[in-house]
Amino acid sequence: MTIMINNLHFVETPEALEEIADFFLNADCIGVDIEADSMFHFREKVCLIQMAAGDLIAVIDPLAIDDMSPIVPVFEKPEIRKIFHGSDYDVRSLNRDFGITIRNLFDTELASRFLGIAETGLGSVMKNRFGVELDKTYQKKDWSKRPLTDGMIEYGAGDVIYLPKLAAILDQELEEKGRTDWVDEECLLLSGVRHQENGAEPLFTRVKGAGKLDRRSLAVLEELLQLRLVISEKKDRPPFKVFSNASLLTLAKDKPLTPGRLKACGALSPRQASTHGNQVLEAVEKGVSLPEEEMPQYPRRKRPSFKPDVPKRMDAIKDYRDSVADNLELDPPILINKALMTAIAACNPGTVDQLYTIGGLRQWQINILGEGIINALHSAS
C-alpha cells in the first residue's frame, strides 16, 4: 500500500506561513516531523518542518522564510497535542533554530516501546499498523539544497500523515494496559531536552577510544581535533567527512612528523594527505612539543565505592525488575535502568517515601515498582 497525499501545502512565503499557522492554532492534534542537514554541513540546521492536522498537510520551508515566529505559538499552545515519532532530536533542533518550546508532546515511538513493541522505527510501525511502506528514496538526501523536488516534498509529508491516527490507536492501547501516565511523564521530560555544545571540555572527550591513550597522545589528538574543526567550518562539512575519528586516533598514536611517516602510517587517503598533510604534520608537532606540565589528562569519573552488601541489593532489585518486566512483556531497562538500580542499592531506602530522594526516578516507576523494590531490599538484608 502506498501513501496517497491530497491536501498538501508547500509553505515557502511569510504570508503562507501566517495563514497555515492560523489553521494549526485551531487544531486539536498535529503530527510533526523535521528534516535536517546534519550529514552535509558543519552547522546542522532544520531544513523542513512537516505538520499534519485533519486532512491537511503543510510542508514548511524555513530556509525560504526569514521569520518563523508565526508558527511558535502553535507549538507552545498546551491545548494542541503535538505528535512526534522519536522526538528527542526534533525537540532539540526546533528549540535551537527557532526558540520553539513544545507543550503537550506525545511521542509515538516512546509509546510503542512502553507497549512492548520490539520494532519501533517509523517504517516498521507504519507497516505493521497500516500496511504502509514508507518511501526511503530521500532518506539520505541533502535537505538544504534548493529547489526541492515534488518527490522530496511528498516524502516529507508521508512521515506525518498517519501520526495523529497512530497516536489515537496507541492512546487506547496504553489506557487498556494502564500505562498512559508512564508515557505522559516521559513525554513531559522529553519536551524539555535541549541542544548542548561541547562546552569547555576537550574535544577528545567525545572520541571513543581516547580514554586509552597516554597524555602525550591525547595532546596530539586534541590538536588534530581542533584542526579538523577549523577545516570543517571553512569547508562547511561535518567533521567526520574531513577526517574520521579512527584516522585521528591512528595519527595520535603514531605521531608522524615527516611526509614519509605520514604516508607510512596509512591514516589518511592520498587525497587527504595531499590537501591537508602539512597542516596535519604541524598539528602533530604542536602536540608532541607541548610542555609536559601542559599535557591534557583524560577526565576519569571516580567510581563510587560501595559497601560489600550493595551488589547483593542490586541483584535483588534486578531480579524483581526482571520478573515484573516479564509479566508486563516489556524490555526490562524500560522499567528501570542499571544506573537507577545501582543508586537505589547504594542508598538502601527503607520505605517507598525515601525513594523520592533518588534523582532521576520517575513518579510512575515509584508507583509501579516502589513497594516491590523495598521488599526486595528487605529480603536482601
Automatic annotation (TrEMBL):
Query: Which Pfam family is one of those matched by this entry?
Result: DNA_pol_A_exo1
**HRDC domain span:** 214-294, 307-381
Question: Could you tell me which Gene3D superfamilies the record lists for this protein?
Answer: HRDC domain, Ribonuclease H-like superfamily/Ribonuclease H
SMART domains in UniProt: 35EXOc, HRDC
Out of the domains of life, which is the source? Bacteria
**Protein name as catalogued:** Ribonuclease D
